[in-house]
């Protein structure tokens, strides 16, 4: 999926607001403060090339098989100009610009439903808590058969999602079928939906897991809260954390810096180099340590790009974490979002970023300290026979411990049971603690 043009244009961007210390696509207007004279010295206009451009425009308008208006031709010319610079520079129309802003902010006008597709219908996977959908009683498993009276059968999931999203405060009617019963209507009002980019849980006692799906504006805060919650749920200091950046396409530069800073107490995190002074930035860690120095393993793979590589590279260079998995994507460039008139924008590559040791990740990626390729885990059938504790009249434990007969060690399914790379990361953390004597 990383190679699709849409993801290349949108999800992999690091929106660096030129002239401001915060790198975020949610505040693109700050980028407009850079005068053109700072970018290039004044040069005479290439009159011959401009005459050629005007001639081509005139010939297309006169001779193309169908009429084409000036606006369409000029927009296509702009798109071509940007697309031939590098894979990540792009002209963003209103929809693409809005999508980029929603993607990096994690907020959009909608109903709060995670959906999938089943037998040609749109199916509710889960309503998000405290959203219009959950308050209206929408349930997991409901089939959405109509949106505002229009049947959903035959629509793609993207088309259906686009219809359910919209302006905050607007009303919408969904027709649902539950458990094979009769269709019924649910009237909802769109609200601001916040999508969290961070998920966390205890893998088992003393060992936490944090998964970052994308670097949004609030991701740094969310990771800080996740670390605090893991410590609270564990009831004592953690002995290890797995930070999962696999298939994370990147996002906001400032959030990547904040996430790395949660695990570092000193030193450089990342720096950028570009042609204009405002694009040369350096970010360093502050002394606060939200992670409390917990042993750390970071999982990466070929889908870990951009901001993910900033975090992984900083933690690797600073010897703060062990990187495990496979080589990352290799996107080491920074994009500036420059807003234009009529809700349009340019996304322009303006700098390269470097890890603390001066490594450019561009087109090379991050190489993990320990390569662990994905593998399918298949649980073997239980071949246990009798144990001593199963024998009638067996002696008790000499230290007074409880008996452990066959079947006493069965446990609930855990994420690491079906994820080979995650299970290896957890084993590494346990091994580090054993050798430390903790």
TrEMBL record:
Superkingdom assignment: Bacteria
Gene3D superfamilies: 2-enoyl-CoA Hydratase, Chain A, domain 1, 2.30.42.10, 3.30.750.44
Cross-referenced InterPro entries: ClpP/crotonase-like_dom_sf, CtpA/B_N, PDZ, PDZ_6, PDZ_sf, Peptidase_S41A, Tail-specific_protease
Signal sequence, start to end: 1-25
GO biological processes: proteolysis; signal transduction
PROSITE patterns reported in the protein's UniProt record: PDZ
Similarity annotation: Belongs to the peptidase S41A family.
PANTHER family associated with the record: CARBOXY-TERMINAL PROCESSING PROTEASE CTPA, TAIL-SPECIFIC PROTEASE
Name of the protein in question: Carboxy-terminal-processing protease
Species the sequence originates in: Pseudomonas putida (strain ATCC 47054 / DSM 6125 / CFBP 8728 / NCIMB 11950 / KT2440)
Highest classification ranks of the organism: Bacteria, Pseudomonadati, Pseudomonadota, Gammaproteobacteria, Pseudomonadales
Annotated gene: ctpA
